[in-house]
Design brief:
The complex is a heterodimer.
Chain A (H helix, E strand, L loop, with lengths): L2 H12 L2 H11 L5 H8 L3 H13 L3 E3 L8 E3 L1 H38 L12
Antiparallel strand pairs in A: 1-2
Helix pairs in contact in A: 1-4, 3-4
Chain B lengths: L11 E5 L3 E8 L3 H9 L1 H7 L6 E8 L6 E8 L5 E12 L3 E8 L8 E10 L2 E9 L3 H16 L6 H6 L2
Antiparallel strand pairs in B: 1-2, 2-8, 3-4, 4-5, 5-6, 6-7, 7-8
Helix pairs in contact in B: 1-2
Classes of the chains: A mainly alpha, B alpha+beta.
Chain lengths: ~120, ~160
């Protein structure tokens, strides 16, 4: 994989909320499949499938010990992806949460008074 | 799984093809209101200021095709500023806005083209923002480092970001 393919794999791996939650769990320490499956109320094969995707994307590595194969978060590829992404995503997430509140306000305004239809187009 | 139920929709952010990034989010409001929130400066300033710790002292827009806009964000902490400037290319009221976007600064990835599209269904509005970078290299440079230096948003703990959404 070249850098771009790797980045694409990283982002598509991260598009899934379950995999993000697994990463969040791994951020606080290495864990086995069984340990990961428990809080998520998922079967171990289902967790394994997610771990494979994460591994392919370079987001985690998995230990060799077959008995207790621990998954570990891989910092550098996360850093590549998140250096930019965490800020950009956060910017829009938080902004959009504020927009939710603003829209609620505008809706309430709309129901209180029948507003003259706004002129569309040029403003200011 | 990630059991917390959110009353707001989850934001989706994915790269598409070689030069695009697509952000999708649904809002519990009709399209006309969402459109106003994106096009009236007094409203834009109330929400488009990121994760907190930033204000938006400048939000000038000459909202017509060929008109220019300039947004400035200012850090409460150190007063540093970041500006986004550009020109409106296409305006379809209540539906679609296309504009050029350039961050002012040495780390800027160059001019990007941003399209905001609004689609309403059952009183809810889905906003799809597509950003097209001038080249694959520019997008990936952006992915790797651009915003990190530019926005200089406060870095929260990684877990929080990973858990988001």
């Amino acid at each position: 994989m070249n850098a771009t393919q790797r980045l694409d794999a990283t982002f598509s791996a991260l598009a899934d909320p379950t995999r993000r939650a697994i990463l969040a769990r791994l951020a606080s320490g290495d864990a086995s499949v069984a340990e990961l499956a428990r809080p998520f109320d998922m079967s171990q094969p289902a967790v394994s499938k997610h771990l494979k995707v994460l591994e392919r994307a370079g987001l985690i590595s998995r230990g060799r010990d077959a008995q207790r194969r621990l998954s570990r978060i891989e910092g550098s590829s996360l850093e590549d992806a998140f250096g930019w992404l965490r800020d950009y995503r956060r910017f829009w997430e938080r902004s959009y949460e504020r927009l939710d509140a603003l829209l609620d306000e505008l809706k309430a305004e709309g129901t209180r008074t029948v507003r003259a239809r706004r002129r569309k187009g040029s403003r200011r | 799984m990630n059991a917390a139920t959110k009353h707001s929709d989850t934001l989706q952010l994915v790269p598409r093809g070689e030069r695009e990034i697509v952000i999708t989010r649904m809002f519990d409001a009709p399209r006309k209101l969402v459109y106003r929130a994106f096009t009236e400066p007094a409203l834009v300033r109330r929400w488009m200021n990121g994760p907190g710790g930033y204000s938006m002292p400048v939000c000038d827009m000459d909202f017509r095709v060929g008109g220019k806009y300039r947004y400035v964000w200012k850090s409460d902490k150190d007063g540093s500023e970041m500006a986004l400037v550009g020109e409106f290319r296409e305006i379809v009221p209540d539906k679609r806005i296309v504009r050029t976007e350039t961050f002012e600064g040495p780390w800027s990835p160059g001019e990007t083209v941003g399209t905001v599209e609004l689609a309403e269904s059952g009183g809810k509005t889905t906003v799809t923002t597509t950003v097209v970078y001038p080249s694959l290299q520019a997008r990936d440079a952006m992915l790797k480092s651009g915003m990190k230096q530019g926005l200089a948003m406060s870095y929260d703990r990684l877990e929080e970001v990973l858990a988001a959404g």
